[in-house]
Specification:
- There is one protein chain.
- The protein starts with 16 loop residues before the first strand and ends with a strand.
- The chain is built from 2 helices and 17 strands.
- It has 313 residues and is mainly beta.
- A hairpin with a 2-residue loop joins strand 7 and strand 8.
- An 11-stranded antiparallel beta sheet has the order 1-2-5-6-7-8-9-10-13-14-17. A two-stranded antiparallel ribbon has the order 3-4.
Length: 313
């Protein structure tokens, strides 16, 4: 498209934050807050827009498809307007503490990494999803069962929706990428004296993560490179044979158990730790390359254990 030339741009955003708080009793706090978040815009590789258009958006030339995807060489700033209302407090002489909150966030021009594969090689760029709404609720509870022993848990549920997406117009109504439908954390913590100096400490955490999409394209079927190549190949198969189904690109619910136990004092500590104690196999991330017809998968960490010693001075 021509010679590469230096590019520059400035991105600015006024970021106010307002918080209201009311304490009807010394063990109860009701609050509400609203604020504006901001992420700077930037540049993709020069020529990215031309590469995408010539390889994926030309459905007339044999071997190409009409992918209906738009990428710009310069991506816009991201702006979020976040509102939260909740209550924090304690019961039974502070033996039970709780935190209950509801939230609503409107994200404008959400920045999202797109991954493309073709005869040009690999291209990773940032696109903008024009508007995404995220709303949900969460609760946190901690209970002091006895001196030195407590239980805790939290639950979050999130509903999200893409309201407008000029980069991929057919994804309107889908969920926000990388946003789990729900999460659940439960665990316990024990701390008991061994002698005048050391305490035995143990903590177990179990985290459940609900279904998660990693792309704006979700339970949908889209044409891939093979949809354009198969009709003109030696196989002469119809183009729809090369279409890709992305209902399999959602990560299922999975749970991970972490453990930490050992001895500690005001100055020294000796701890055993285990991450993913049950050696659960799960997907950390799936990066679909929509027009290539597949996903790049990153596995989650398997069982990791060890011992660590510490000293404060």
């Amino acid at each position: 498209f021509g010679a590469l030339t230096p590019k520059s741009a400035s991105f600015k955003q006024f970021q106010p934050k307002v918080t209201l708080s009311w304490t009807p009793t010394n063990r109860l706090n009701v609050y509400a807050n609203w604020g504006i978040g901001f992420k700077s815009g930037g540049f993709n590789n020069q020529g990215s827009s031309a590469i995408i258009n010539s390889n994926f958006n030309n459905g007339v030339t044999p071997g190409t498809i009409n992918a209906n995807v738009r990428i710009n060489d310069q991506y816009r700033k991201e702006r979020s307007s976040a509102f939260e209302v909740g209550v924090k407090g304690s019961l039974l002489d502070d033996r039970i503490t709780f935190d209950l909150a509801g939230y609503y966030t409107r994200i404008t021009d959400m920045q999202f990494f797109e991954f493309f594969v073709g005869s040009f090689g690999l291209l990773r760029v940032v696109s903008n999803i024009d508007q995404v709404d995220v709303k949900g609720a969460e609760i946190n509870l901690t209970a002091k069962v006895t001196d030195g022993f407590k239980l805790f848990g939290s639950f979050n549920v999130t509903d999200s929706e893409i309201k407008k997406n000029s980069s991929r117009t057919y994804t309107v109504g889908n969920k926000s990428p990388y946003t789990a439908a729900w999460t659940l954390n439960v665990g316990g913590e024990l701390s008991v004296p061994v002698n005048d100096t050391f305490k035995f400490f143990a903590r177990a955490d179990y985290r459940l993560t609900g279904p998660t999409w990693f792309h704006s394209v979700q339970d949908q079927t889209r044409p891939s490179l093979f949809s354009g190549l198969l009709p003109i190949s030696a196989l002469a198969l119809p183009g729809f044979v090369g279409d890709a189904r992305y209902n399999v690109a959602q990560r299922n619910t999975y749970g991970v158990l972490n453990l930490r136990a050992g001895f500690q004092s005001e100055r020294y500590s000796l701890m055993f730790f285990a991450e993913n104690l049950t050696d659960k196999a799960y997907i950390a991330e799936a990066i679909p390359a929509i027009e290539f017809g597949g996903s790049f998968i990153s596995p989650g960490g398997r069982r990791l254990w060890g011992v660590e010693a510490g000293m404060k001075f």
